[in-house]
Amino acid sequence: xxxxxxxxxxxxxxxxxxxxxxxxxxxxxxxxxxxxxxxxxxxxxxxxxxxxxxxxxxxxxxxxxxxxxxxxxxxxxxxxxxxxxxxxxxxxxxxxxxxxxxxxxxxxxxxxxxxxxxxxxxxxxxxxxxxxxx
Length: 134
Fold this sequence. Notes:
The structure is a single chain. The chain is mainly β. The chain has strands at 9-16, 22-27, 31-36, 70-77, 80-85, 88-95, 115-117, 124-132. The protein has a single domain, classed as Jelly Rolls, CATH 2.60.120. It is built from no helices and eight strands.
């Protein structure tokens, strides 16, 4: 979890997740972008890889096999989330006014930390960059 809190920002990162492993990347510590080794499933779901967990399934199934790095660029401005996952827009200006589960707190109208979930399985992250937006 970051000490710094963020409001409007774009984050870019790569991750690698083994088959069936489960993790998450939390925007402001409240909105989970699901990370799941589900390439074999072949379909997007509300709790699958790339979902805004338990809130909205990705518009496209873009999971890669377990031995391949995946790339995410997520932008959150106010209560709106846009995600490009493995080069394809999977969430386009999705309004999310609720915490999505396992969040740090429920104060969705406040700046928050970047939170990496690490208790559900193995995951590797690299090249994480955050750009604060006005």
